[in-house]
Write a structure and sequence with these properties.
With 153 residues, this protein is mainly beta. The protein folds into 2 domains: 99 residues, Cupredoxins -  blue copper proteins (Immunoglobulin-like), CATH 2.60.40; 33 residues, no CATH class. Helices cover 8% and strands 25% of the residues. A 4-stranded antiparallel beta sheet has the order 4-3-6-7. The longest helix is centred in the first third of the chain and has 6 residues. The two termini are 33 Å apart. The relative contact order is 0.16.
Amino acid sequence: MAATVYDVGDSAGWTIIGNVDYNQWSSSKIFKVDDTLIFNYDPQYHNVLQVSRSDFHSCDATSPIAAYSTGNDSIPIRTSGHYFYICGFVGHCQAGQKVDIRVPRPIQPTGTPNESPDGGPQALSALGPAPIGRRMPGPFMNSGKSILLDFGR
């Protein structure tokens, strides 16, 4: 799937004017690794600070993880996780100029577990593949019990 470039706040940009609801904006998106966030704003009146979760909730701009101030900041998403951005100008975060970006882990494709290089299933044993429908000793059990492995061929 191709990467997406997101203008934070869409056409309003990064601002306190117009009562932009950045929480609503971000919750309507599905962010992924390799996407890019673009913060557009007037650097005379705003900036972008990446902060911790607690600093986001308290609007504490004193210890940012990263700081941006060009007015057209391009921030690539490199890993899944939770990212918090605020404006560091006095009162702006408290007025709602903050955004919480959630990037979920990529969903792994589902398939037959433990497939061999030729695409066929393998038994979960150090002893090698088990015959289909036959019992074999469990590799990590001393009870003498066995397990039935049936891969539905």
